[in-house]
Amino acid sequence: MNKDEQLHRLLRERFGYQHFRDGQQETIESLLAGHDTLTVLPTGAGKSLLYQLPAYLLPHGVVIVSPLISLMQDQVDRLRQRGEKRVVMLSSQLQGPARDQVLNSLGSFRFIFASPEILATPAILAALRRIQPSMLVVDEAHCVSQWGPDFRPEYLLLKRARQALGSPRLLMLTATATPRVRRDILNKLGLDRDRVHQVIRSVNRPNIFLAVDRVADQAAKNDRLCQLVTSLPAPGIIYFASRKLASQMADWLAEQTGLAVAPYHAGMAAVDRFKIQQQFMNNRLQLVCATSAFGMGVDKNDIRYVIHYHLPANLESYMQEIGRAGRDGQQSVAVLLYAPGDEGLASQLTTINLPSADLLTQVQHHQLRPSVLGDDQELFTFYLDHGYQPAQIVTAFRKRQRQLAISLQRVVDYTGLATCRRRFLLDYFGEEAADFPPPCCDVDQPQWAGELTMKSAPHPVVCQQGDWHLRLRQLFNQGNNQ
Amino acid sequence: MNSYILRFFSYHQPRRVRVIENLLVNRRTVANLFWGQQYGLLQWLGANRSLTRREYDTTIDELVAQGLLVVDDQQQARLTVAGVQRQEEDRDHQYQPHFLDWYWLANTNQLGQRLLLGMQVVSELAYHNVRYAPVTVGYGHLLAVKQWFARANRDQLAATVYRDLTQLTTGLAGADPRLATVLTDGLVGHDLPAWTNAQLGKQLGMAPADMLVLSHDLLLGVAAYCQHVPGPLHDLLAPLLNEGPLSKSAVQTLNLYQHGHSLTQIAAQRHLKLSTVREHLLEVAILCPAQLDWDQLLPARKRAALVKRYPDPDVTTWHFQSQADDDGAAFFDYRLFQIYQGREAHE
Ligand SMILES: [Zn+2]
């Protein structure tokens, strides 16, 4: 059996797919040939298969680094759902005897998920080194290139972590990376650009219609939101910049529209998040009011719309978040709501109070307690602890702050376009943009609301409640569920 | 959260703001336990372990800003007249807990997680499904449930769990039908999504603050059932149940003490500081006073001397009068006497 047949057989038998999607086979073959590989595929293109399939052909376990616990949890859940038991997640939540037990049996796992900060722990690194992992996967690799308050500084330690693991082959995955970010990822991980195989596919998602609604003020925005969620077919997601607002608006929308709505954000207990995701997957919820914590790994194919109530921080996040719509390839919609002044809130969220180099120096020399550095003290002490000099930190943060402002400005530009929005986005990601056939965006098609043909919503599943006898019979398959 | 916190304060008795927080999150120092008992709030120990400092402080600030609570410069708070009125209004429709006497029996956060996962596993088994995402709980629970499942008789498990849960839920429904609803609608099952407490609270018309009380109470009820009734739920949850209100270390100290060892002997034997041994006995004095021989621990002549120095029947107003070259024994006697007299006042 040749290599190609072997791969397809594994794809059919273990993953249940007949064909590879664009970019998958090229990535997998590159990895199996031992090359470090950077793959940029649009959201929904099946990125997890890129490491899951080779994991069954490589001799040792695969270590996957992911920036968010919730994202890792999604991946772990889905592997388990497929019947894979040899999965484990290493994070700071794993403690005590459970942790010892896992570390002693690390060699028995095929998939080892690890948070970036746990990879900075010597005991964990040593345990991982002993099992000689066959591959290191950096998921959401664009995080490597972000320096500053908006992401995990631990990603900067990945270069060292990889060396400590014996430099296994590396897979870097992302859905959105401009050419500049791609160069930066390779730099930060200490890789030679000529020796890394890059698999780049267009981030364009033709079945997602792009629209912006500019409204006069908050009240008009809420009216418009009501109108949208009652006219667009469910299920949908609305993204908010704050947890509090996500919760409040979920209540308000449920009251106004009678839809089954729930909030979802990182401030909720893990068990509650699980329950909300499960309700959403089973069509008991029509709409989720979320913060960006939701949906990194939501495997729901039929999300018909994604609305942004606030401006995203940059177009990378925007592409990621709207990419959760229409994974089934059916017509879907992304709407960005904008009221004058919204950029003020967005820039507030990404602004940090940068302490002076002088203050940082005093903390560095233990003359002052880190608490003088304010809310972001952990961030700054992280850099200090890892040998960065105060002046260097201040310069880097200033530069980063400027970059953030520029990134946000590009989002504001996007809301004010008089030309095709898709072309603008693809241009941002460094892609040659041609003309796009309709339906494409609201600039070409201002009357889109009445013109788009969309699949109707699945019937919301109503669950009878309040009869605990019935509920218990259903739970444990007892009697005839009367 | 405001009406939740408000219920722990009083008009007549100034109460230490930090003590109430420490009780709710289960910080068990002797001082917290002592004051918790004086406030009559000991049974709320560990009732809200996920409460954060920021959340609590914000709530206190809000209550003060609303004129319902005043905080003095000793960080003691008491209700205002408006606060008393609000507390009384709240009481009329507040959920009244049934199982708080079992406060010491289990960490309800942990118990809830293990129950949820255990029941999900059995539900999937009942539908012969092996491919599913387990509910997001700590790895320790995953291991424990796996072991429980491995030991169980799988052919019978769904049926026996069903019977066990039916019996439990019938009991809970007898106390308050809402307990039955929240328990069963909150369980994750095969192709059967569960409701969050927030959602259930809305459906039952209960304030979030009340749901906090109900869900803690519910799980104490579950713990109490499991402690008494053998069956699969007992097997699943028993490892999470405590044997009594005392910490394990205090129990060991108590055993030695009851066998006639002196405090110094116990300290040497257990490689503990003498002050720690004293704290263990104070913990016993507060939580299980009947376990101690008070006449031996605090002989009548000592009591007579102490009552002269601390004559006020209201022990909460006392201030320790320290003596020269004190090795902590004087404070131990003082606190012990305070507990002793305080109990008399309570009873
Ligand atoms: Zn267009």
UniProtKB/TrEMBL annotation, chain A:
Annotated Helicase ATP-binding domain residues: 28-195
Keyword list, A-Z: ATP-binding, DNA-binding, Helicase, Hydrolase, Nucleotide-binding
One Pfam family cited in the UniProt record for this chain: RecQ_Zn_bind
Gene Ontology biological process terms, A to Z: DNA recombination; DNA repair
PROSITE patterns in alphabetical order: DEAH_ATP_HELICASE, HELICASE_ATP_BIND_1, HELICASE_CTER
Gene3D superfamilies named in the record: P-loop containing nucleotide triphosphate hydrolases
A molecular function (GO) term: ATP binding
GO annotations of cellular component type: bacterial nucleoid; cytoplasm; replisome
Signal peptide positions on this chain: none
Residue ranges annotated for the Helicase C-terminal domain, each copy included: 224-380
CDD domains reported in the protein's UniProt record: DEXHc_RecQ
NCBIfam families registered for this protein in UniProt: recQ_fam
Record protein name field: ATP-dependent DNA helicase RecQ
Organism classification: Bacteria, Bacillati, Bacillota, Bacilli, Lactobacillales
